[in-house]
Amino acid sequence: MNTKILFILLFLGISTGAYSQVPPVVEASNNSVRSTVLTQKFLSPTRIVWKSDETGKQVLNAESILNPGIGQADLNQGKYLTLINDQDLKAGLILDFGCEIQGGIEIVTTINNQNPTGRIRIRFGESVSETMSETGPGGATNDHAMRDFTMQLPWLGRQIIGESGFRFMRIDLLDPDTKVEIKEISAVLRYRDIPYLGSFTCNDERLNKIWMTGAYTVHLNMQDYLWDGVKRDRLVWVGDMHPEVMTINSVFGANEVVPKSLDLARDLTPLPNWMNGISSYSMWWLLIHRDWYYYHGDLAYLKQQQNYMVDLLNLLSTNIDANGKETLDGGRFLDWPSSENQEAVHAGLQSMMVMTFEAGTDLCEILGDKETAKLCHASVEKLKKHVPGMAGSKQAAALLAMSGLVTAAQANNEVLARDGVHKMSTFYGYYMLIARAMAGDYQGAIDNIREYWGAMLDLGATTFWEDFDIDWTQNATRIDELVPEGKVDIHKTYGGYCYKQFRHSFCHGWASGPTSWLSQYVLGVKVLEPGCKTIKLEPHLGDLQWVKGTFPTPYGVVEIEHRKLENGEVKTTCKAPKEVKIVR
């Protein structure tokens, strides 16, 4: 066979009979080849939000850019988007792709351009106002992902540009006395092509949309690793992973992105260092493993963690003083809104120590390590001697209730049920909801979800945000609109700590808590035995009339429906794989 043809066939992976089907580049590169499981889809813009010129002199044929593209340049003439600059005025427009995505932009140009073309500026935005901002103090940033850059388009060709989290894109022609003609602009969505095995539907459409928005928020962050944000915080933050992993358990089932990310955090953090430099995040690592094992029952994977887990538990046991008080060093952190309340941080860390050693007792008994299980049990008893106050903090109150250091009823009555959704947070809001459920206040938690997470949807969100304060809604403009005079630009105006103004991420996986919570407490799925071998159905409908959904297990999907009867009783129907025992 012709050597050149053989090379091409091999490179394309086409069978050549006795010849190897492995591309030569793979054989030559050996372990240096890295692949990805991500899929790309190309999305057409849904609308034009803004044009720099409405006269038709500088921005021509703008509506043509809404037509679906094919990703291929050609020699045809047509009425295409044309941006024209004179000496003084610059042409530009803002496109809306309908929802937040993770990816970039594909631009296809025509034959009618100069060669070389003029320069353009691209600005991605999670809000319309972000696309109109400058980088630097008070503006957006290029941290973690470029969202503002200048480049030159090809004369007649296709160019894929950037990778960030965005819904909106602004394009501006920069050079004076220039013109550029563009056939297509598409968003390039990069994601894991996986099914939504879990589902949740009830008679309240607001709750249905919240459940799905939380699921989609995490889905976007399931890239090659599990990130916290797709614009900023494109990193493996282990504490932030816990709500994300619980959402994955409820929606997608087992996915390799979770163990891959947990293992990365472990391998990057030799003891006695703390994961991400934060002591609570090392504890979250162990708590995630406990939950992952119960949902998926992968004992072989759990055993791979045993040495690190045992060493971590031994390290944590040295951070308890004679009075049972935690003495953790490193970054002492729960979440940003609680970070200035050191009394609350201590209460949270004390609670997390109890929760971690209780999980450690359970896991070490499963692994047959009686000695470390005994150490964990003794540590719990020692820690219970010291019970911090709730410090007026909903974060502290939630963890104190979850650890059993205070009763859930006390935490709910004294802190969690007060002030409505004020002082809630997107990350620890999940644990506030859990603690309210533990207190039997399911209706209070459902109302919190509607008001707090629902308010983000009312402002145009299609994914949940890094942080949110209900007071921000006062006189605020939706994020999918231009900001009129006299209204508050919510993205530009608010945010603190590391997420000030446009640096604020509007797609943060740690904010997905309602998705898992609704599946666990309203649909009523409680995993009792590792691998979902036994599931208890205990629905709490509150003011809902019915709820139905599905829940993924290693053996298949469980189908569930609950309907409230006229006498107030709830009728449940369920269909489960034969390997899954359902108790009520």
From TrEMBL:
Residues 1-20 form the signal peptide. Residues 524-581 form the Alpha-L-rhamnosidase C-terminal domain. It comes from the Bacteria. Keywords: Signal. Gene3D superfamilies: 1.50.10.10, Maltose phosphorylase, domain 3. GO terms for biological process: carbohydrate metabolic process. Pfam families: Bac_rhamnosid6H, Bac_rhamnosid_C. Residues 197-522 form the Alpha-L-rhamnosidase six-hairpin glycosidase domain. InterPro entries: 6-hairpin_glycosidase_sf (IPR008928), 6hp_glycosidase-like_sf (IPR012341), Bac_rhamnosid6H (IPR035396), Bac_rhamnosid_C (IPR035398). PANTHER family: ALPHA-L-RHAMNOSIDASE SIX-HAIRPIN GLYCOSIDASE DOMAIN-CONTAINING PROTEIN (PTHR34987:SF6), C, PUTATIVE (AFU_ORTHOLOGUE AFUA_3G02880)-RELATED (PTHR34987). This is Alpha-L-rhamnosidase. It comes from Maribellus luteus.
